[in-house]
Design goal:
2 copies of one chain form a homodimer. By secondary structure, chain A is an alpha/beta fold. Helices cover 41% and strands 16% of the residues of chain A. The longest helix of chain A has 24 residues. Strand 8 of chain A pairs antiparallel with strand 14 of chain B, so a sheet runs across the interface.
């Protein structure tokens, strides 16, 4: 597997960090998830739940995002817990955490301390605002990143309120940037022999994902309006009403617009109509074009409309909900959902990995760990701890 | 710089691919952008524009996302163009393209052909639906990925229409996954000596970014509703009306909810009120809680409310628009926008890089290339071509 020689000590909780290490684990890295002995990752108590084989309520959220990882417990506040962690750092390539900046330093386990133990260690931190800058000490959450990173201000219906993307997009973007940073630092280490710190701010990541928004504002002096599914520079490129729902049409250039007018709308006059003759005209008169398109499409279902449009070479597609996505033949062949048998939850569906390495395919191999479920295996094999030592640490509540 | 030893042949156009190679270039990779001699990347004609020093309309869109790259022209349909490309592949680590699947094979330049020339080559393709699966031949665009990947179905106001994220999010997610795949494949090559193909589908990437949506649906049998800025599992965690706009409050656990009731709302009764006593109650009675919060907040501006809430340790923040983000002191210190002097556009602002490698900082060093601007430098230094050869290729419209 692509990352099979990498050992990652994973102190992250909830979503952004665990999503990052999930991708690394899917690609073969040995990810050792380190949880507090008392309860572990908060998401062990997050919905959706299922009654497990022991008749207890167990989280599928945790089970999804922590598959392929090993799980150990460690109390980093206890001196012996710190010592065990330091011994693990000597054996590891990457440490990743998503505490608020400063927490690891206060524990005596910040990057400056860890690089003394292992100069090759790569130390990645994912936080709401990063480890430097005036907001770095603020608490960071997905909704704040979406709001302060500018995504909310440009998302929403025309004339409507600022709206977040419907998933925890800030966390997802943080996890993706974290994986890039870690892999780039691993590569840099192959050149220099030295590790380094990787600092990821959810707010930064959302700003990056707003792409040209700032440029457009700086040149025009106008704040970009929210505009539903329309785009600022191309039209017709939107969702259009059919008999039973909406279909997307992306006719973003002259050739595709002419095809649409000739072969779908049967309105060649719309090509020469001065209102629609070029893109800027079409952008100014979107409502009028929409009316004509929807007049035609009202005779078709979204499935029929999609087929009709694609048959004529016009980019089109349905707006799929998750029930349709789960049944979609393309999604199945792409293995974007994978079946897994979990020891206490039974058969469950987990997300697949979107990074398709064709010769070293990412895969879902093992279920998420029970709390401390790999204490013996990991601490025994990596640190050579005996059963007696482990028992003593367990009694002292260090693991 | 982290990736300074990597040479990337970049055949990508428009956004997803160029965003991917922008990140690699920001981290030091030598990215050689290869454009068709006749006009180059489509985005050279995309707004926003500025009148350049020659009095021509020039694209800032192109200039933003292609900084740090070298630019050469090459006609891959001409036999001599193919031959120059093959010679470059021998010297390169990565080829990346975002044609529709099959285009490169038809040119005789697909992965199977290129790995014969250089078994170490990493071949990354970013397309709407990936290189396998029943939709792989369909045209792919950002709006289709957002619609078919399930993001649109879960984004939007309560009771409102499916809504896209306001940026080209599918393209951004494709670029991020592409960078992860390339760096993972580079690492795998360090273990095996062999390159491989990396296949990225925008639709896959959007599905991945919907995180637990499928799990929730599978367990509940209920399609997730659109719900504006609310989240399914935590409350109060939303945007709330102040005197002059909205403020985000993320009081996602019992402790923060109690703090909010005691220290901001001065309503300790709301902690013991049976409607709000636990998270499931608060989720069911969000409107009632919102009313109380907004009654209090109406006396404050969003700035005042943010300070008040953060002062009491409650996660909060404003909804920033791009004009505010550009002026924000935190964003400035994080260098999420960078000033650059472009030879024909003059001083301009470009996006910074969100992957903060602390010892090998990503940076913006050189402006985007003119069309074929580095033909002599690249083809001369990498392939040892003479001025005469270059002149001949230029006359033959190969470059």
């Amino acid at each position: 597997m692509a990352l099979e020689d990498l050992t990652v000590l994973d102190l992250t909780r909830v979503l952004a960090g665990p999503f990052c290490t999930m991708m690394l684990a899917d690609m073969g890295a040995q990810v050792i998830k380190i949880e507090v002995p008392d309860g572990g990752d908060d998401t062990r108590t997050y919905p959706p739940f299922r009654e497990n084989v022991n008749g207890e309520r167990e989280s599928l959220y945790f089970a999804n995002i922590n598959r392929n990882k090993k799980g150990i417990t460690l109390n980093l506040k206890a001196p012996e817990g710190k010592e065990v962690f330091r011994r693990l750092v000597k054996k590891a390539d990457v440490v990743i955490e998503n505490y608020r900046p400063g927490v690891m330093d206060k524990l005596g386990l910040g990057y400056d301390a860890l690089k003394e133990i292992n100069p090759g260690i790569i130390y990645a931190a994912i936080s709401g605002f990063g480890c430097y800058g005036p907001y770095s000490a603020r608490p960071g959450y997905d909704i704040l990143a979406q709001a302060m990173g500018g995504m909310m201000a440009i998302t929403g219906a025309k004339g409507g309120d600022p709206t977040r993307a419907g998933s925890a997009l800030g966390d997802m973007l943080g996890g993706l940037h974290g994986a890039i940073g870690i892999l780039a630092a691993v590569h840099a280490r192959s050149l220099t022999g030295k590790g380094q710190r990787v600092d990821i701010s959810l707010m930064d990541c959302v700003i990056a994902a707003t792409e040209n928004t700032a440029l457009k504002y700086l040149e025009s002096g106008k704040l970009p309006p929210r505009m539903g599914n329309r785009y600022a520079a191309v039209s017709p490129y939107d969702a259009f009403q059919c008999k039973d729902g909406k279909v997307i049409i992306a006719a973003g250039n002259q050739r595709l617009y002419e095809k649409l007018c000739n072969e779908i709308l049967h309105r060649p006059d719309m090509i020469t109509d001065p209102r629609f003759v070029d893109m800027s005209g079409r952008l100014e008169n979107q409502d009028a074009i929409q009316e004509v398109i929807e007049e035609t499409l009202r005779e078709y279902t979204t499935t029929e409309a999609t087929e009709l449009l694609l048959g004529k070479g016009i980019p089109a597609g349905p707006i799929l909900d998750v029930s349709q996505i789960l049944e979609d033949p393309h999604v199945k062949e792409r293995e974007m959902f994978v079946e897994l048998t979990h020891p206490t939850l039974g058969d469950m569906t987990v997300n697949g990995c979107a990074v398709k390495l064709m010769d070293t395919k990412p895969s879902v191999r093992t279920p998420a760990p029970a709390l401390g479920g790999d204490n013996e295996a990991v601490l025994g094999s990596l640190l050579g701890m005996t059963k007696e030592e482990l028992e003593r640490l367990r009694e002292a509540k260090v693991i």
